[in-house]
Design goal:
With 563 residues, the protein is of the alpha/beta class. It has three domains: 117 residues, Phosphohistidine domain (Glucose Oxidase, domain 1, 3-Layer(bba) Sandwich); 100 residues, Enzyme I, Chain A, domain 2, CATH 1.10.274; 270 residues, Alpha-Beta Barrel (TIM Barrel). It is 46% helix and 14% strand. The strands form two sheets. Strands 1-8-7-3-4-5-6-2 form an eight-stranded mixed beta sheet. An eight-stranded parallel barrel has the order 9-10-11-12-13-14-15-16, surrounded by five helices. Helix 1 crosses helix 6 and helix 10 packs parallel to helix 11. The longest helix is centred in the first third of the chain and has 24 residues. The chain is globular. The two termini are 30 Å apart. 52% of the residues are buried.
């Protein structure tokens, strides 16, 4: 970019609403392994050096974790754990034995694991960025260069990077980071989720932003995914006005979720740890719509004991008192392999033995978790609702329901994230009390598009009419059986989609707590009939952009300011 840097507009995918104007700071790309690196002649000695470097990386991340905020600490600690992973060290040693130089060996070994993780999808695919961050830090140390990362922000700035590792986004604050722009990433990437939690405007898939000179004044609109380089005074004023209008619209939203005419839509939080629970419980949410329990099981050599699980579940239940808590049983298997429950390699892990399929094979794991949940329920008397992931058939739903009810747990449900479950929701709901739509997985299976592959982001837009059609099928089954259907995927936190989902028959929406005020406001501006009309218009559109445009055209003008 040369002359056109004076005034340029970039378009990406808006993943965290809000607007900001400020100077651009570029995250310098990490150093690469030299293409002419000399081969290793003493693999054992080189392996010792690399192990020492990886330990230094781990210690550095732990030191940052010790000074980090509560939300950042576990992310940094997870990076340190990866740096110490014996599997990574073994892979590097094998590369060194094959004659590769140290930095080349580190790069090759990490990429081997990344390819495997990306093929697995889900949680494991999300950890690729962490792994590459460890690689970059190790390579920099081996080359005698400073570790890569976000530079010290001396003035409030807008950050641009090809991609950001969780270890970097975790340390950002709203005081110094006005906005985030990345060339990579997707709507469900760690950067997108964390930016939304922090309330920092963010745009991903903004190809070309790294060519903009450091210090250039840029404007970001995280709602519509637009970045303006060197905005005019009029453009800056328009963004400021939109920011003011958004703040004013959000200021009036309190109480439980409901449409303008009183149709209740419960607004719930997504949580993943006990720490998440404590924080979310302080927010004006009506409970938990998705408690991911995987954190108790991953990166362990042995299964957590019933007592250990019970203690954690009790802590979470107590945090929410009488408010509902929907617990998802372990969603692991091919896409989130467990060391103590590895079923072996699979040709297509994303379509393999994960979720309920693993639970039906390793019944000891399922039984122990349900026993712990039942014990925590009896100890607290909480409003606990337990659901299973990856349900596809009535037989699976029946098997799970019988186990849950045998232990005295009050309500049993299923995740609808496989199209088959949406199509046959009436039969599946006959056996359970409720269902929750996992729109992230439901969309990737509907569109045959890996949700972690940024290049397929257009197919993963939650406004996609095909996804809305599948959601409608699930809701029709729920209405026929008189069973509530909720949404716990990212779609639930979109204020416009919240209207569409309510119009389709969804009775609860679960999201990052920071998204609740915008969704509450959007619902309160429209009647149920209006929501139903907008849902019909969105489904009638030919693509995601058309669906969103149709809803905005019909909606209260304030809705545009909530994105």
């Amino acid at each position: 970019m040369t002359g056109d840097v004076l005034h340029t507009t970039f378009h990406g995918i808006g993943v965290s609403a809000g607007t900001a104007v400020g100077p651009l700071v570029i995250v310098t790309p990490a150093p690469k392994a030299p293409t002419d690196e000399a081969p290793t002649t003493d693999a054992a000695a080189a392996a010792d050096v690399v192990r020492g470097v990886l330990e230094d990386v781990a210690v550095g991340l732990e030191a940052r974790a010790a000074k980090a905020s509560d939300h950042a600490r576990p992310i940094l600690e997870a990076g340190a754990m990866m740096a110490r992973d014996p599997g990574l060290a073994m892979g590097i040693e094998n590369q060194l034995k094959a004659g590769k130089g140290p930095t080349t060996a580190v790069t090759a070994a990490v990429e081997e694991i990344c390819v495997m993780f990306e093929a697995l999808g889900g949680y494991m695919a999300e950890r690729v960025t962490d792994l590459r961050d460890v690689r970059d830090r190790a390579v920099a140390r081996l080359l005698g260069k400073p570790e890569p990362g976000v530079p010290t922000l001396t003035v409030p700035s807008i950050l641009a990077a090809h991609d950001l590792a969780p270890a970097e986004t975790a340390t950002l604050t709203t005081e110094t980071c006005l906005g985030i722009i990345t060339e990579a990433g997707g709507p469900t990437s760690h950067t997108a989720i964390l930016a939304s939690q922090l309330g920092i405007p963010a745009v991903v898939q903004a190809v070309g932003i790294m060519a903009v000179p450091v210090g250039t004044r840029v404007a970001i609109d995280g709602g519509v995914g637009e970045i303006t380089v060197n905005p005019t005074a009029e453009e800056s004023a328009m963004l400021e006005e939109r920011k003011r209008r958004r703040a004013a619209a959000l200021a009036g939203g309190t109480g439980n979720g409901a449409t303008k005419d009183g149709y209740p839509v419960a607004l719930l939080a997504n949580i993943g740890t006990a720490d998440d629970a404590r924080k979310a419980a302080k927010q004006p949410v009506e409970g938990v719509g998705l408690f991911r329990t995987e954190f108790l099981f991953l990166d362990r050599d042995t299964m957590p004991t019933v007592e250990e699980q019970t203690a954690t579940y009790t802590e979470v239940f107590e945090a929410f008192g009488t408010r509902r808590i929907v617990v998802r049983t372990l969603d692991a298997g091919a896409d989130k392999p467990l060391k103590f429950a590895d079923l072996g390699p699979e040709e297509n892990p994303a379509l393999g033995r994960r979720g309920i399929r693993l639970g039906m094979i390793r019944t000891d794991v399922m039984d122990a978790q349900l026993e712990a949940l039942a014990a925590a329920y009896k100890a607290t008397g909480a409003d606990v609702r337990v659901m299973a992931p990856m349900i596809a058939t009535q037989a699976e739903a029946t098997w799970f329901a019988e186990k849950v009810r045998a232990l005295g747990l009050p309500k049993v449900g299923v995740m609808i994230e496989v199209p088959a479950a949406a199509i046959r929701s009436r039969g599946i709901l006959y056996h359970v009390d409720f269902a929750s739509l996992g729109t992230n997985d439901l969309q990737q299976y509907t569109m045959a598009a890996d949700r972690m592959q940024g290049e397929l982001a257009d197919l993963l837009n939650p406004w996609e009419p095909a996804l809305l059609d599948v959601v409608a099928l699930a809701c029709e089954g729920g209405q026929a059986m008189g069973k509530p259907i909720g949404v716990c995927g990212e779609a639930g936190g979109d204020p416009g989609l919240a209207l569409v989902l309510a119009g389709l028959g969804v009775s609860s929406l679960s999201m990052a707590p920071g998204k609740v005020p915008a969704v509450r406001t959007a619902l309160g501006l429209h009647t149920l009939t209006q929501c139903q009309q907008m849902a019909a218009a969105a489904r009638a559109a030919t693509d995601a952009a058309g669906a969103k445009a149709a809803v905005l055209k019909m909606a209260d003008p304030v809705l545009a300011d909530l994105f």
